[in-house]
Amino acid sequence: MNAVADHDTAMVAGPVLGDGDFQFLRGFVYQYCGIALSEQKRQLVQGRLARRLRALGMRGFGEYCELLRRDPGSELDELSSAISTNVTAFFREAHHFDLLAGELLPRWLEQKREGGRLRIWSAGCSSGEEPYSIAMVLAEALERCGRTVDAKILATDLSPAALAAARKGVYPLERLEGVSPERRRRWFLRGEGEYAGLACVHPRLRELTAILPLNLLHEWPMQGPFDAIFCRNVVIYFDQPTKQKLFRRYARLLPDGGHLFLGHSESMHGLSDEFELIGRTVYRKKPA
What we know:
Structural class: alpha/beta
Domain CheR-type methyltransferase: 10-288
Pfam family, one: CheR
Protein name: Chemotaxis protein methyltransferase
Keywords: Methyltransferase, S-adenosyl-L-methionine, Transferase
Strand order of the largest sheet: 6-2-1-7-8-10-9
Largest sheet: 7 strands, mixed
Strand content: 15-25%
Radius of gyration: 20 Å
Function: Methylation of the membrane-bound methyl-accepting chemotaxis proteins (MCP) to form gamma-glutamyl methyl ester residues in MCP.
């Protein structure tokens, strides 16, 4: 998930973010990232971007805003990483994975022909915990299925730093708290020597997962269809029109009966009539 945090534990002294520059940054971030920054986020943005100013050798926020005006694309990735906090965990909101493992995947795999296609999208994959959790459940279901199915997980995010961590697939052992002992043994390789205290995801999980950059507000290169889309703890930071547009776009990539998973504090209520709620933040696309 990409979310603007409510606080920064380390406030960085440096240039002051004035009203004009902050209003420009608010508009820029909304236009390019879809995130609505409130006035209460000013100190956070100032602290986060002060580090970026130092890296660029700039003396003030006016110079930075001028760079964004002159060449928005050159700095978009760094800006999004600077203001984003990636909060995630393996098997976060475990009921989603229970539904996937116990009901949905067995049904989908039973319906697929030999060599059939199964696709799941983790939209806002952060540092990889969500798509690798899906991959564990999918790999186990494929083994039980006993047939050859073309199954893949697409994992996308806006933040280059988050994507780099996801591609690396190496995590401190304490980050594996949500993973059962059996799955830890099966799907992680424990580091030794200089990698002591770390665990690397199993190559099979990497094989199932494609990790790519994507801004949800821009054009989407994929055509679908997806059997399921996970977009959890992402849309809560968008305004209502952006949410409505995003849900319409998701609906176009899901077949009738396809599933959309949202975060625990998110809802489609009043935002889309193309889905029906079938469980805790689990939606199913209605027949056309």
